[in-house]
Amino acid sequence: MNTPAHLIFGAAAFARPNDWKINCAAILGAFAPDASLYAMAGWHLRVLGTPPEVVFRELYYSDAWQSVFAVDNSFFVWGALLALALYFRRSAGIAFAGAGLLHLALDFPLHHDDGRMHFWPVSTWVFESPVSYWDRAHYGDIIGPIEIAVSLLLLGLLWRRFRSAIARGLLLLAACFQIAPVFFWLLVFDG
């Protein structure tokens, strides 16, 4: 799934009105499994001037990048974080780890040839799903619009849950960011 969708799903599952600590933890947890991708891709795209095709068609699949993704996309790592948060009864930790696990659970079935080693360090196996959230050759033209539709429905739920002008402004921003990747990927891969 696209990162904005993960933030929306994480917020819908864990964010609560008037609890900024839990809300921030949920958003950060939903983002954390993709943070290394943004850092590494951002460095290459913005600082080094590496073409997007190289970043997303070569570097993304390199052993070095996949080794980093294995850690921040491991069900075992996130499960351990959730177990610790539950043991110590830390609500923010539960929201953080729960949103991270939700991210992985949503990504696992939606990556065809660009999946992650979700069972690291026990295994380096990568599930190759028959469907993809973006790849048209693997139903991305169906899954992508479903992701957007469900995200927009969840934004509606969050709109009802959160009534402050700031929260609603952030929800509108989230809607824009959820729709924007469609155009980004069309530019990167020339439609």
What is this structure, in a nutshell?
Helices cover 70% and strands 0% of the residues. With 191 residues, it is mainly α.
Describe this structure in words.
The protein is mainly α and 191 residues long. Helices cover 70% and strands 0% of the residues. It contains 8 helices and no strands. It has helices spanning 3-14, 20-48, 52-57, 63-72, 75-87, 91-107, 140-161, 165-188. Helix 1 (3-14) packs across helix 6, helix 1 runs antiparallel to helix 8 (165-188) and helix 7 packs antiparallel against helix 8. It starts with a helix and ends with a helix. The mean pLDDT is 94.
Name the assembly state.
Answer: single chain
Radius of gyration: 17 Å
The tally of strands reads: 0
User: Which blocks of ≥5 consecutive residues have pLDDT under 50?
Assistant: none
Return the structural class: mainly alpha
- The run of helices and strands is HHHHHHHH
Beta-strand percentage?
Answer: under 5%
Instruction: Please tally the helical runs, counting DSSP H or I stretches of 4 or more residues.
Output: 8
Give a quick account of the main beta sheet: strands, pairing sense, barrel closure. none
- Overall geometry: globular
Distance separating the two termini: 18 Å
**Helix content estimate:** 55-70%
Mean pLDDT: 94
